[in-house]
Automatic annotation (TrEMBL), chains A, B, C, D:
Residues 3-148 form the Semialdehyde dehydrogenase NAD-binding domain. This is N-acetyl-gamma-glutamyl-phosphate reductase. Pfam families: Semialdhyde_dh, Semialdhyde_dhC_1. Belongs to the NAGSA dehydrogenase family. Type 1 subfamily. Keywords: Amino-acid biosynthesis, Arginine biosynthesis, Cytoplasm, NADP, Oxidoreductase. The lineage of its organism: Bacteria, Pseudomonadati, Pseudomonadota, Gammaproteobacteria, Orbales. Coiled coil: none annotated. It comes from Orbus hercynius. Pathway: Amino-acid biosynthesis; L-arginine biosynthesis; N(2)-acetyl-L-ornithine from L-glutamate: step 3/4. Its main location: cytoplasm. Its EC number is 1.2.1.38. GO terms for molecular function: N-acetyl-gamma-glutamyl-phosphate reductase activity; NAD binding; NADP+ binding. GO terms for cellular component: cytoplasm. The keyword rRNA processing does not apply.
Length: 336, 336, 336, 336
């Protein structure tokens, strides 16, 4: 049994990680931590005011990190479900202890110091770890993940955006002179579990935000190797991301070419489901670890549809998938 | 034209009041105030981050109360859409200036000093105004409202609970040895526009709260003259209250008796709609100023169903209705 | 008082029309009709199983058309809130009687017989009326509407799509070699009040549909004079449309140019609201007759956001707006 | 491996059963059936228009029952997720073949022929099987379930209503002269997957229905041995039941007595979770197989709160739980 620590376990992704790990046959949860200032410190994760759905499943206490420093050398795996700047600050400590770190924040996703200054508002101090970090887009980087110490689990939008596009780019089917237009709608959980007027029940309604300025745009462009126009939206639902990607294919590309490209990369991948017919709806993936992909082609216009649960394939499930790959377990262990 | 000031205009009830008053042929909005510390001070009520639905309808600024003190003698009417303790503190000032005050908070609803200490957490200082305040349950207290200077607009739950029960009590149809069981479900707007984890979009789901301890229970019991068991619930919708009231009638009471009692008091009241058949659903009243009432009787068991929009008949619309009654306008002016 | 008949009054748009007309100072509702086979025939529109929200507001019966044939010569105005093929079949009858007809269906929106065969599945028989029909995009065709006998009220998506684009095209700001990408999400009411698995509460979740094949694409392209890529989506909400339009401007076009174009055409139009700052959210317009427009420009990429209530500015409100224009009433009479 | 057939697999409970059984280590799905007239016959359960969430998980075809008659002697277990009258008609056939039958309909829940005539609208023909049927309230009837051939899985409301009340009745804590008042709100999935205006997305809003006439009232009363007042409501959510039960305890009963009674019966039951503090919310159980119970006592007034997922503990999960008990598997196998 490998021992895993979840840092930032009281948030939505953290609680979901705890749920997955609690069912995992090869993992033992060594601890769940919250910030020392958190009002949740000392409570059970399954407290009736926290995550009561986990009652009987993960009745472990949320404790400050200090409670675990004495046993840090016994911990094999650390999941960071923390704010970007917190991950940035604490990841090196765990890495230096020899832990394998899965960071769900954006702190190690793009190997560019300027990127953090511009989009995350802090100066990145750990170029060495940026160089070593592997981007955990599981279906594409599994070979690197197997040997990585620091896995930067992709953002929710970037996962939904890249999975449908990468096979087409890899196969040279896209007309890369025209930037793909990515419109995506995320559930409210994407903004985290912190109270704010923006996620007040009565204030939420479908709307676009972060036009031309969302930090996931450069993350997508970097790992895709292709500029894109990315417009995020908030939808009035709890979980899920629906992405509609309009792009242009090269002259002569057919529906069969698209389908062949998607199948080439995903037919044997258990957590990406390609639709031969129809287009996926959000409900197909809510609560499940999949990314579902469909498309339609007319002349040289291609529309790709992808859906995922932002907290699962877009966060916790992909983190566990990366862990499974890293340690040689079956890729879907504890996920389905 | 009468001049009206809305204190606490940035909340849900306050904004709705502003909308109603902006359409009222006999009212001019003299000002909209917010707390001096509010980040909204200086913005338009219709600002895109506040109440953009009012753009073009109520493009007035939110200003601290201090901006209006110089003109207070010109103001005829004050609506207090403020926290209970704030209403308590400031109502006397306006009253002493001769304004007619419609208070949407609970600060003057029950003439009992102990009630405020126990249920609202402050010691009430204004017994004189408590004595003079008229409880603004519009269909029942219109004669008193016509001559009142301080109208305490009822709470949302108490309106939905009392309107169906009062005719039956007035006609002596209820077996008063058995307490009516009032289960009511409110939309999230009932908790106000302040960010908190309780109204986080992802945290809201149907649940009971305040069992045996909600402040609306004694308000209902006081004005009904009948003890009740009141259990409030939060529902996953923005606006509306649905109340299910289970009670016991006296031996021999028939369906016709119930219907006759409801019609006796409401057939000529424009904002209470009695169903001869079927039961009202929440959608019947959302966005509208009505309270709809239906019922079913079996043996001596009576179930009353009432629905209203908590922000309208349960707050802003009833306040305007009281104002219309107070000044002799048609009761529904600007409401439908 | 002008006498108006609403054909197909039991649907969502029809009921909304009845509500608006009931408040209109210059209109008398002459009748509400439903199909002779309808189970609703004989019921009140405000029946508790139909539109109980209208109880006390529009307590008129739904009757078969045959009940009105004797008085058809007294009817001035007919609203057709009917299926496309039904509008096609019956509009000429009313037109020949001299009625002014506002058709909310798609039967007379595009002057091309082939369009109906391909996208609506029937062969259009009334070329003469197609030639005479005026497309009721109110802000753009008011001069024509004033003298029209047959007004084809635009579809919900086409209204949301065209209003932001038309000023830019009119001012020559768009790079028309690149087709605008229109992604729009509609509430479920857009599919009408007929029970089907597609609008079953538990089946609805955000998803794209009608890729490259929705009938509103050619309607948009025709009246815009510009090809577009239009992708409709169903969202899990009752009312509203949110459109995100990604397009390319000509070299040198600035934010001020865009704003100036929008203001040139809409600053004096009461039902289109242009945002100088921020982007509109769906909640800004639900229940209201507006179309709200915002935008962002970066380099030559322009994103336009428009929102409207699909049943109001996208259907019933625009129909009433057209009627107000046609008869010289204030454009917003009974709407706000 | 035991072979199981699911009859009526295309509905919500049927699809959920298929999901649970697909993960069960001791069960092999022998077949999924739908009515011969069903348009779904021949499709995969995971078809994109049916239950696409099951793609890759249960890619089995839906076939008419006739396809399985040749292998019926090889089938060990039959789940009936069918209409009440269909279960009534076909259950004896499977029972006579020696199958163990878990019926999710109401056809065998109450041993009274008159009950079916009055509440289900058909004359029950199988008194013998009614006599042999065991009511599958798993926490209470496990000893009988172990030896039963026909298990009548309880209704969703009856499960939520009985689980909190039975311990108090068993311990003699309730004042049985006063009928418990059970108000419950169910998600829309409770009405099944058939399109109707009642479950149209735009028609659903919180409302009471079936006052004094719902078939679950006599089911509850029969198995509780206590008359009750039961008022069902439809809520605007997909899955879940929230029940609020107001009752009267005997003189002298304390909070500790209530808690002790609940713990006595449930402390060792894995699928009932008793709250020592706070009250459960719907979100605690949606997607999970639990029934959560909380309460509050004041004087002799007791309010019990229970929540469950109507499709899981209220249907499919309890059916699998019964199967696990019947065959000696761990009670929660494949459920958590």
């Amino acid at each position: 049994m490998l021992k895993a620590l979840i840092v930032g376990a009281s948030g939505y992704a953290g609680a979901q990680l705890a749920f997955y790990l609690s069912k995992h046959p090869h993992i033992e949860i060594a601890g769940l931590t919250v910030s020392e200032k958190s009002a949740d410190a000392g409570k059970l994760l399954s407290d009736f005011e926290l995550h009561p759905q986990l009652k009987g499943l993960v009745d472990l206490p949320l404790l400050p990190m200090a409670d675990y420093t004495a046993i840090i050398q016994d911990i094999d795996i650390v999941f960071l479900a923390t704010e970007h700047s917190v991950s940035h600050d604490i990841a090196p400590y765990f890495l230096e202890q020899g832990c394998i770190v899965f960071d769900l924040s954006g702190a190690f996703r793009v190997n560019s110091l300027g990127f953090y200054t511009e989009f995350y508002g802090f100066n990145h101090q750990h170029q060495t770890w940026l160089d070593k970090a592997v981007y955990g887009l599981a279906e594409w980087n599994d070979k690197l993940i197997k040997h990585a110490q620091l896995i930067a689990v992709p953002g929710c939008y970037p996962t939904a955006a890249q999975l449908p596009l990468k096979p087409l780019i890899a196969e040279g089917l896209l007309d890369d002179t025209q930037w793909p237009v990515i419109n995506a709608v995320s559930g409210v959980s994407g903004a985290g579990r912190k109270a704010s007027l923006k996620n007040h029940f009565c204030e939420v309604s479908l709307h676009a935000y972060g036009l031309f300025s969302h930090r996931h745009q450069p993350e997508i462009a970097t790992h895709l190797g292709q500029e894109v126009i990315f417009t995020p939206h908030l939808g009035s639902f709890k979980q899920g991301i629906h992405a509609t990607i309009t792009c242009r294919v090269k002259d002569g590309v057919t529906t069969d070419d698209i389908l062949a490209a998607l199948n080439k990369y995903y037919a044997h991948k258990p957590l990406v489901r390609v639709y031969q017919q129809g287009w996926p709806a959000l409900k197909s993936v809510v609560g499940l670890p999949y990314c579902d992909i469909g498309f339609a082609l007319k002349d040289r216009h291609l529309i790709l549809i992808s859906v995922e649960d932002n907290l699962l394939k877009g966060a916790a499930a992909q983190a566990v998938q990366c862990m499974n790959i890293r340690f040689g377990f079956d890729e879907t262990t504890s996920l389905i």
